[in-house]
Amino acid sequence: MPVVGFLFSRKEWFYFAILSTLLLLILPLAFDIFRLNLIGKYLTYAFVAIGLVLLWGNGGILSLGQGIFFGLGGYCMAMFLKLEASTPEATSIQSTPGIPDFMDWNQITALPSWWEPFYSFPFTILAIILVPSIFAFIIGTAMFKRRVGGVYFAIITQAVAAILTILIIGQQGYTGGVNGITDLRTLLGWDIRTDEAKLILYFVNAVLLIGVLILAQAVRISKFGRLLIAMRDREDRVRFSGYDVANFKIFIFCLAAAISAIGGAMFTLQVGFMSPSFVGIVPSIEMVIFAAVGGRLSLFGAIYGALLVNAAKTTFSESFPELWLFAMGGLFIAVVMAFPYGLAGLVKEHVEPFFARLFASLRKRRPLAQPQAAE
């Protein structure tokens, strides 16, 4: 039996097949490269939404700072790409050739030591996973070991997101400041700005997303996943049963951070830059809305929620850019009040029963085979 046979029920396998067909076949055939690249950007946010389903939907831990980890993953990838674009030949007009242009503009004459490991692509891949995970471990240990949770934890993650944004902007000579790290051109000598590269990166992004979806489902159906749900519903009972609730919370927080960071790294490759505007409070709240609209209990819904909300944002902001934040706030209120389980809840409550009744009706109308008369 294939691996997914152990992970998904028959109905979930059907949904998995629909999603895979949509991402790998229908969307690439239906849209030109510009729109497909835009959809690829939307899918990078779906990584964060999947992490939030595990963290918030299953674990009951609402984090309003997932942009922290999305941004850290994106900055790690951007640092590697920027160093590759900053060869002495490409930066010969600078006062100090061989360093990123924003460092030269800020009169820095040597590459900082903590930038140098990012010359290595294997180190960069490890850093994309480890740096956000370590950061999440520090925050999680400080909070969960002291039993800080609920609204207090959500507010603290918002504060950390704001602090990190201010730090990135303030250290302009080392991080690119408010403009971020821009003008990213190649990955290991491969030009990522061409249409062919954008198409390949879309498929890499989609395959990684499907892989993360399978990983998240494996976590959900494991004993750890069942303990997460028990912690969400009756945390004291789990603690009194002898389990260390704080360690479980730290682990799922770190896992959600690592998944978000993968999305951030792919965002940098898809878009070609990374800036602090994707780290702060507003993008972090938007990421929660992606999960809420799709359904905070559904991995499939999280992906559709990220696609739908970002497509609406693009369409709406083109005509009414100043009203988008109000529309986003209204959307979040509507989700909480009208359909708290998001799109996945609507499908489960209305769409699935409709098709069940339809198929039952068709089976009743099917004529029975008439027995042949004996000769």
From TrEMBL:
Pfam families associated with the record: BPD_transp_2
Alphabetically ordered keywords of this record: Cell membrane, Membrane, Plasmid, Transmembrane, Transmembrane helix
Q: How does it sit in the membrane?
A: Multi-pass membrane protein
The protein's matches in CDD domains, at most eight in alphabetical order, are given as:
TM_PBP1_LivM_like (cd06581)
Positions of transmembrane segments: 13-31, 43-72, 121-144, 151-170, 199-219, 240-267, 287-311, 323-343
Compartments, as annotated in UniProt: Cell membrane
Protein name as catalogued: Urea ABC transporter permease subunit UrtC
Gene that specifies this protein: urtC
